[in-house]
Please model this.
Amino acid sequence: MNTEPSDTAAAVPMDAPAPALAANPMGAVPARAAWPLVLVGVVASAALLVAALAWQKLASIQEQLARQSMEAGSQATEARATARQAQELAMETAAKLAVTEARLSEVSLQRTQLEELMQSLSRSRDENLVVDIESALRLAQQQAQLTGSVEPLLAALKSADLRVSRAAQPRLTPLQRAIARDVTRIKATAQADTPALLVKLDELVLLADELPVANAAPATRLSEPLKRKPEEAVTTWWMRLGLQVADEMRGLVRVSRIEDPDSALLSSEQSYFLRENLKLKLLNARLGLLSRQIESVRTDLAGAAVAVGRFFDASSRKTQTASALLQQVRGQMKALELPRIDDTMAALATAAAGR
Model:
């Protein structure tokens, strides 16, 4: 065995400081070899610390998960309770909805019945309105015929238009338009002057007595009675007597042209009745004019015109005057016809039929 180390140790004085490795001469580790161990210890400590921290964090996570699980369970319980409440509410709502639908059906049925009743009342009101308007217009037509004035007819049409406007029914709009057309046509129609026609008829009645019959003899100058004057000679008196006799003889025979053979056969008595018949026709026409019997007036005037042209002398000035007056009266008779309200009556018939 090598003893040199021992000798070296013996040579060192006792009071000299020993080296660091001299305390453990057999098991001592060099300083360079101790650093890894320290590093391993530090790493191990860090690992333990990290593990402790991880364990603590894991415990916290577990605690949080447990708490969240408990909360989730509580929320699930509350959700199930809410679901049960929602189900109960849904069932209750369904029951209420069924009741509401039943009531709604009843209300809808009642509303339908009410609408039908209102429509029925409206139709009944409209029908009554149409009937009232038609009756008023017919009465106005009769008044217009009796009076010869269109004022009653215009007043009735204006009243009907006002009532239709107040009703405000769309189905009566055509009636309102028809009333407006009839009012415009009546206002534009010219009416005859009835008093003037009556005056002309009176003139014709007075003129009938002066009309010369077609077969009447011409008027002759009445000769003076033959009386002998004291200073007149006998020869002159006989000459005048002869001339007068000759005139009388020429008057016994008359040659004239008569268009109608019946006129030549009229006697004096028949001529009188002819004039009276003519005056009767003219008076009947006058009465018909006053009573607004237009067709009767036309018939009488036509008969009078035929009688004047057939039995009376057409070359006479009085006959010509009578013919002219008759022609004027007959011409003005067309204006005596009151305008008709056919559009309004047709619209009333359509409204009454419900179309």
User: Anything to note?
Assistant: The mean pLDDT is 75. Residues 192-216+266-337 form one domain.
